[in-house]
Specification:
- With 116 residues, this protein is mainly beta.
- It contains two helices and four strands; from the N terminus they run αβββαβ.
- It has a four-stranded antiparallel β-sheet, with helices on one face.
- The model has no long low-confidence stretch (mean pLDDT 89).
Length: 116
């Protein structure tokens, strides 16, 4: 398949035909960590380069209607272990540890970990 065929698209009307998982607490497992590269973002009038990642979770107790496959949900984060960063909160919970300045951390250890 050529790259052109993958990126050649026509717009569609309507909201799409996808199922939203039910609102509730679900047991989930981290199934993907995707490095999105570094992106420039403006915050309070200052432009900064930030490394972004997607984290994806499979909802283990939540199959899609008429399917054997579970729902998968994802969120984009700034990859930072600053104590105030949302990514750092997720990493602390999944790894069960606090991060110390200057310490190397293998964040791929989060893959496969379960959470609510």
């Amino acid at each position: 398949m050529s790259a052109e065929s993958v990126w050649t698209m026509k717009p569609t009307s309507g909201g799409g035909n996808f199922e939203v998982p039910p609102e509730d607490n679900h047991l989930a497992r981290l199934v993907a960590m995707v490095d999105l590269g570094t992106h420039s973002r403006e915050y309070k009038g200052k432009v900064e380069d930030k490394p972004l990642v997607y984290l994806a979770w499979e909802l283990l107790d939540c199959p899609m209607s008429g399917s054997k496959f579970n729902h998968v949900v994802y969120e984009r984060y700034t990859r930072s272990l600053n104590e105030k960063a949302r990514f750092a909160v997720v990493a602390r919970v999944l790894l069960g540890k606090d991060f110390k300045d200057g310490e190397n951390n293998d964040l791929t250890a989060m893959l496969g970990r379960a959470c609510m």
